[in-house]
Design brief:
- Helix 4 crosses helix 5, helix 5 crosses helix 6 and helix 6 runs antiparallel to helix 7.
- This protein has seven helices and eight strands.
- The chain has a single domain, classed as 3-Layer(aba) Sandwich (Rossmann fold), CATH 3.40.50.
Length: 227
């Protein structure tokens, strides 16, 4: 897979490039079992992917914070956020590809990475939107209307820290495409700077602003690739 193909789309947002990436992976690797996870205010682009494929598992969860009227893909199962793990367990399956656009608060994003990764099969790949906020405002820890990325980027780094046997990157395009794979695809790495990861966690724990540090050291922290 030629990653430079996606990096050429420098100004694309709203899920355009992550949609292209997922489509290309689907074609190249012939994935059979795919899971899409979104929320009421994130991930509408997922509803436009493989619209006629009835084998894709689609889940939308709502939270007590945001619960507004939605019109998701007709095959989508709508659940409360607290029921996500039970819903996945009831499926009795693992997935080749999991694509997520989580609720972007730190605790829920961290939970989602932990839970969803356990449903990857032995060669599975997990892709997350909104992992490289383009400014401090959209990296706000709590929901703001508009293009909110929250702290999903921090949760992704935390996930990589606790799962060093997987392979990672964040593509700095389309609000940040986080990729975690059980297989060592050529553009991924698990040689990440754990000391700098720990410094990032320390900043957040001490209520200091972590975003600037992340931007400065994203290559070392999470193998970020920029145009």
């Amino acid at each position: 897979m030629n990653i430079s193909k996606y990096l050429n789309y420098k100004n694309a947002i709203f899920g355009n490039i992550i949609s292209l990436l997922v489509s290309d992976l689907y074609k190249e690797y012939n994935y059979n079992n795919i899971l899409f996870i979104r929320t009421c205010t994130t991930g509408p682009w997922l509803d436009n992917l493989f619209v006629d494929n009835k084998n894709i598992t689609r889940i939308l969860y709502y939270t007590d914070t945001i619960n507004k009227p939605i019109r998701p893909h007709p095959s989508t199962k709508i659940i409360h956020s607290n029921d996500l793990e039970n819903e996945l367990r009831s499926l009795h399956k693992t997935f080749d590809l999991i694509c997520m656009d989580t609720w972007h608060e730190y605790d829920i994003s961290s939970r989602d990475f932990r839970i969803l990764s356990s449903y990857l099969n032995e060669s599975g790949i997990l892709i997350s939107h909104d992992c490289y906020p383009w400014n401090k405002k959209v990296a706000n820890p709590y929901f703001i209307p508009g293009s909110w990325c929250g702290e999903t980027y921090l949760s992704f780094v935390e996930f990589a820290y606790h799962n060093p046997d997987m392979f990672y990157t964040i593509l700095n395009i389309d609000t940040g495409i986080g990729i975690a794979s059980k297989l060592p695809l050529h553009f991924l790495s698990n040689t990440l700077n754990r000391t700098k990861q720990e410094k990032l966690f320390e900043l957040r724990k001490n209520d200091e602003e972590p975003y600037t540090y992340f931007i400065e050291y994203a290559k070392e922290i999470i193998n970020a690739i920029s145009p």
